[in-house]
Amino acid sequence: MSERKAALVTGSTSGIGLGVATAFAKAGMNVTLNGLGDPNEIEKVRAALAAETGVEVRYDGANLMQPEACAGMVDSAVGAFGRLDVLVNNAGIQYVSPIEDFPVDKWNAIIALNLSAAFHAIRAAMRPMKERKYGRIINIASAHAHVASPFKSAYVAAKHGILGLTKTVALESAAFGVRCNAISPGYVLTPLVENQIPDTMKARNMTREQVINDVLLAAQPTKEFVKIEDVAGIALFLTTPAADQINGASLSVDGGWTAQ
Ligand code: NAD
After folding, report:
1. Is the CA virtual torsion 142, 147, 153, 158 positive or negative?
2. Does 127 fall in a domain?
3. Which residue, 2, 60, 108, 194, has fewest beta-carbon neighbours within 10 Å?
């Protein structure tokens, strides 16, 4: 078994997940990346992160819409490094539509990835974590885990759900050295947000600038996007001893959005 801590970050081929995986690797953890995308591009990202940090970086292309794939990914990660210290459930998608037109398959996909995949991964990780009496589970929730916005019924439902899952897992595992917390970011300018701008323009009949200023950043008092590094820094903090008594919490990184 490696001396290094081992982390698995879902949805880490881009955006927030890649930022979290990078912060962990820079801190000396071996890392399993996961996510979809062009295999050549992903291999470039994997190799560059390994070369930059000197840790082992592996990639698992599991499609987390499938329950068995979630469990298989966790089992392989435990097998590869002989330990799993940190699990970050980050993979997520978005779809924006008035509810009467909301495609049923989009609802099912968002619940499957943004909520159920975390359940399946935690379910598979809990036994090995309890056996080692150590585990740090971090669920990337959202300001939308605390408040709603129109046209995001599936996303808001899944994110509210993941807070309930976080609290339940925190209580179940507290006596076994395992902690489970959520990070709830406001808007971060990743592909996930870029992709919803055209739909929001259509749904609200607005220009791109109006969507950014009057919708996305309207509720964010700093009037700035949250940076990927801001979220990654909190995730790394949750793996340090200073955070040992943080359990079942949602740490907001939203420029004050949910303080209103
Ligand atoms: P992103 O689109 O940049 O990254 C999403 C990742 O999930 C990618 O690596 C993608 O390949 C992966 N993914 C998509 N479908 C998958 C599947 N079926 N199986 C496995 N992996 C899959 O998005 P992001 O903005 O970095 O979002 C990451 C997380 O942060 C999501 O849970 C999102 O809800 C949350 N979040 C984002 C924001 C924001 O403003 N960007 C705000 C709050 C919360």
Report:
1. positive
2. yes
3. 194
Whether 199 is covered by a domain: the verdict is: no
| In-domain check, residue 214 | no
Residue ranges, the chain, pLDDT below 70: none
Alpha-helical (H) ranges within 82-185 are: 104-111, 117-132, 153-173
pTM of the model: 0.97
The H-assigned helical ranges of 139-224 are 153-173, 191-204, 208-210
DSSP-H helix ranges across 15-174: 15-26, 39-53, 67-81, 104-111, 117-132, 153-173
Rounded CA separation 187/21 (Å): 19
Cα 5 to the center of its chain, rounded Å: 19
Q: How far is the CA of 227 from the centre of ligand 1 (A)?
A: 14
Residue 156 and residue 243: Cα distance in Å, rounded?
27
Kindly state if the Cβ of 197 falls inside 6 Å of ligand 1: no
Residue nearest to atom 44 of ligand 1 (CA): 142
For residue 52, the enclosing domain spans: 6-187+226-252
Q: What is the pLDDT of residues 3-38, one digit of tens each?
A: 999 999 999 999 999 999 999 999 999 999 999 999
What is the tally of structural domains in the chain? 1
Return the axis-axis angle of helices 228-237 and 15-26, rounded to nearest 10°: 50
Is residue 91, in this structure, part of any structural domain at all? yes
Residues 131 and 80: their CA atoms lie apart, in Å, by 17
CA 200 to the chain's CA centroid: 23
How many angstroms separate the Cα of 241 from the Cα of each of 82, 86, 177? 22, 13, 12
| CATH, residue 97 | 3.40.50.720
HSE-up (13 A, CA, CB side) for residue 233: 7
**203 Cβ below 6 A of ligand 1:** no
